[in-house]
Structures are given as C-alpha cells and as structure tokens.
Amino acid sequence: MDRNSVIGLILIAAILIVFSIWNTPDRKALEEARRKADSIALAQQAITNQQKPDSLKSISTIQKDSISAIDKYAEFAQAAQDSFRIISIENDLLRLQVSTRGGSPYAVELKKYKTFDQKPLILFYGDSTIFGFNFYTRSNRHINTAELYFRPVENSEHILLSESDTAKSLRMRLYAGENRYIEYIYTLRPSSYKVDFKVQLVGIDSLMAPSTTQLDLVWATYLRAQEKEIPNENAFTNITYKFNKEDVEKLENNGKTDEKVENLRNRIKWIAYKQQFFSSVLVGEQPFENATLLIRNVNDTSLRLLKYMKTEAGVAYSPSQKNDQLAFWFYFGPNHYQTLRKFHLDMEELVRLGGSIVKFINRFLIIPVFNFLNKFISNYGIIILLLTIFIKLLIFPLTYKSYLSMAKMRVLKPQIDQINERIPAEKAMERQQAIMALYKRAGVNPLGGCLPMLLQFPVLIAMFYFFPASIELRQQAFLWAKDLSSYDAIISWNAHIPLITEYFGNHISLFNLLMTITTIITMRMNNQSNASQQTLPGMQTMMYMMPIIFMFVLNKYSAGLTYYYFLANVITIIQNEIFKRSIDEEKLLQQLNENKKKPVKKSSFQARLEEAARKKGYRR
Hints:
The protein is built from 17 helices and 21 strands. By secondary structure, the chain is α+β, with helices and mostly antiparallel strands. The protein has 2 domains: 80-350, Beta-galactosidase, Chain A, domain 5 (Distorted Sandwich), CATH 2.70.98; 358-597, no CATH class.
C-alpha cells in the first residue's frame, strides 16, 4: 500500500470519528430523553401489565438471589423474596386495593362515580404509584419499604364493610426476624372517604441507626384523566398543601413549564394530589418536615395520563421508643366543599372559589343557596335558573338605580347639546364644568349608572369560579348539554385549524354562542339608554369586540357557566324592557327641572371650607 493510500485511509477515519462525535447528543439530552421514556414506560407497564406467576428458577439462581438479598437487606432479606398479592378493603363509597409489595395502596376506585365514558373511576392503579419509608440500619444498609414484601395478618383477600360495621381494618406486616416487624394498619368506616393509616414499629428500634431522628416518606404517582377534555382537566391539576397552622398553597406547572420542584422548609400538615373534581390527600397527625414536591407534565393522550407527582418528606421518629406508632390518614374522594369542610383542616380550599371578596360571595351566598335548592330539586338546569333569578332579585335595586341614572342623563341630553353648542370644543374644561354644574343642579350623579354595574362584577366573577369547580354538575345533563361541567358542543370537527384549535377548540358550544348573542343585545340596549354619553372613537368597536373575545375564552368552559351568563343576559333584557315601559321620561324631565329651581345643597365639606374662609376674613 503506497503513502497516498495510507494518508487517504487516515483522513477517512478522521472524518468518520469527527462526524460521529459531532452527531452524538449531549449527556443532558440523553438523560432527559431517557427520563421521559422511562416515565411513560413505567406508566404503560402499570396500566397494561397483568401479574403473571413467577417462572421456575434453578437452585443456583435461587441461592444467588438469597445471597444478594441478604447482602442488601440483612434482617429484611426474607421480605425481599416473598410473593405478590392484592388484598382489598371497601365500603359503600370506596374500594382500596393494597399490594403486598410495599404494603402500599395499589389502586383506589370511587364507586359512586364514573369516568366521562362511564368506566370505573380509578384515581391511580398499579406500579405507577409508590408509597413507602426509607431509613438506614445499624449495619448502614438502606431500607426502602416500597421494595419489600408485606404479609397480611388476616387470611381474607377481600374485606367488605356492611352497614352494621363500625369499622374494619387491614393489617400488613413487614418482618425483619422474630418479633420484629413494621405493620401498616388501614382502617375504613362505612360511608366515608377517609382511610386511617397507622404505622406500628415493633422491635425495629434495635435495627435502626442510632442517629435516626426521622423516616423519609416517599409518595409518587401518575394521575389518570377522568374527564373528556384533558387540557381543561390538566389546568385544574396540581399539588396543594397546607403549612402547619398556616395558609394553603399550591404547586402547579401550567403553561410551558414541563417540570417544577418546590423545597419546603416549613412544616406541612397535609399534601393533596388534586385533579379537577377528585383528590388524593395524605394527612399527618404530626406535621411533615423538609418536604420536597415535584410535579411533571406527562400529557400522554393514549394512556390518558395527566401529570406525575412526587413527595419526599421527613416523618419525626425516636428510636428510643419501642413499639412506636406513626399516625396518618388518607382522603380519597371528590372535591366537594361541604364534605372537605367537615375535617376542619382547610381542605375545602381544594375547591377553587377565587380570592378575597369572590371567595366570600361563593362561601356565604352562592354555595348555601345552591345547596338549599339542591335539597328540593334534582334537575341542575332548573337549580341554575332559580339561582340566577335569586341573584338578579338580590341586585335588583342596584340594577334599577343604574337604569334610572342613565334615564336621567338621557332626558337631559338636549340641554347638554345646548351647552356643547354654546361652548366651543377648544374650551373642553369649561364645557365639562358646565355639564357637571347642570348635573348638580338637576340632582343627577353621572357615576350613578356605572357604580351599581361595577358592584355586580364580583358576583359574575364568583360564578366564573363556582361552576367549573362544582362536582354536583359533573355528568348532569340538561337540554342538549350532556354534561354541565363540560362544554356543550353542537358542532365538532377533527381537523386542526391554526389558532382556532388552540384557543377556541374543535367545537362550537351552543350556550356559549347564545351567551355571546345576548351579551351583544344587552350592550346595544345599554348604549341606547346611555345616549347622552359621548364615546371615544373606536370605543364602540371595542365594546362589541369584548363579547367575541369572551366567546373564544369560554367555549371550552363549563356549560353550566355559559348557561348562567345566558340566563343573566335574558333576565337583564327583560328588566330593561320593563324599566323602559314603567319610567315616564316626560315626568322625569319635569322633576329634574324642578330640582334646578331649588337651592343647591352644599356638602358638609364645602360648608366647612366656606366657614373657615369667612372666619379668616373677619380676623383680617
């Protein structure tokens, strides 16, 4: 081989090496891709995988596994080689399945509810959920209870509570030799979504590292979508938690954030994996310490997975106390305001009702009236109608005052036009002062039509929060709407339309459309009633654009919400027609002209100013 051939081969090899290095993804990209793939694979396995009997192993393989387990787990080695089983405990509301692997909740079914397609509603299922405690032994072995096998104390594979039972318990033990074990005790009562959970440590203190002051709790799960519209449900999905004797906060990653982590140094009373209508909540009798929370988007539409959530927190423990007991309890159930409020732990904050004034209106006005009507009426469409009428009657004085104020300004319009003709536009300040003087002499408040309307906005915003969070409306049909908690599509399509699909959706909601039409009608009526007010150029166009914008925003929202806004608009139209026919504008103008003949009553502030000026003049 000549020199040129050797040089050519070397150059080719160099090019190949450089090309392979150039096209090799960086470590971070590989790790990120591997993490996402592992996450989806774990969820896929958890949902689709069925438990199969163990295959036969050779004697040498069994011996190797035993030596490996002893080396890794020491006293807990036997618990690493037990068998997988599922034991269930249930009452009339809840079915809890517990796995022997980890002794932890394996699946939870809410028996009174169904998914949007009428399948059993399961909060989580299979190995996609991890729950356990981590600690170190005296021999410096790391023990993770989620990896080891518990044994049920009872022989029954299925514990069912009857109406006569006060409570029943499922007991699972993780053995570490004779008279040494960790026991999980799940206790369930009839007609309750609460599951008491106690951890009994018997003889374990002799195995614990002397420096142990807390156990590390790990709780992770993939949340399954329960509703038809996954993006909408995802917007309500977050980790909500309560600081001990303090406020309730939440960790969410809506928008473009794929993952979010929160390190909490304050003690935590409870942690909830919250969805739109359901939650899994872990409450500690003693607060959790040094909690780290993680929430990650999954958005796997094929498996209908929403988010991955994980909690790592410390649980106080003292090795010197024998037979120590740790007390917790779970809540697996609906985000129902009255149900959650009974626990007196601010868990009702899981129902999003808005803030400050809006929350006050929902708590002390909307919810009590809604629940009162629900005692006598089962049709939620009728309940919303009566609720709308009640609210309209409640704010009727404000509505009437607003319309009357606009009527006064309307009958004064000819006199305002005379002022505008007399005073040129260049003297805008003088013209405005003359108009305000006319209003003052006639006894008209120019803000009288605006303030009453502004006072109604908190009610409208309260409804914006109330209806999407009301589990009572879930899967309740009315007229053409099959589910008042979701949108009422009358036309749907599958094609992706840029901007339209992202913001409006691939459907048209009829109640939303009716709401938009009636909103435009009410705005037009108000403009005609308020003809005395001069609007800025382009303001009319902007006012009519607002209903179109709201139509895009609310097209994916609860049909109950747009139905309420539609009813409110219809009642407003009827009220305006009644006001228009009942108010005699000629008599109203005559009354205003009579008011101008009366001496203008000075305000107390103005009287004090004049009195101070008069005394000052005397002193001079």
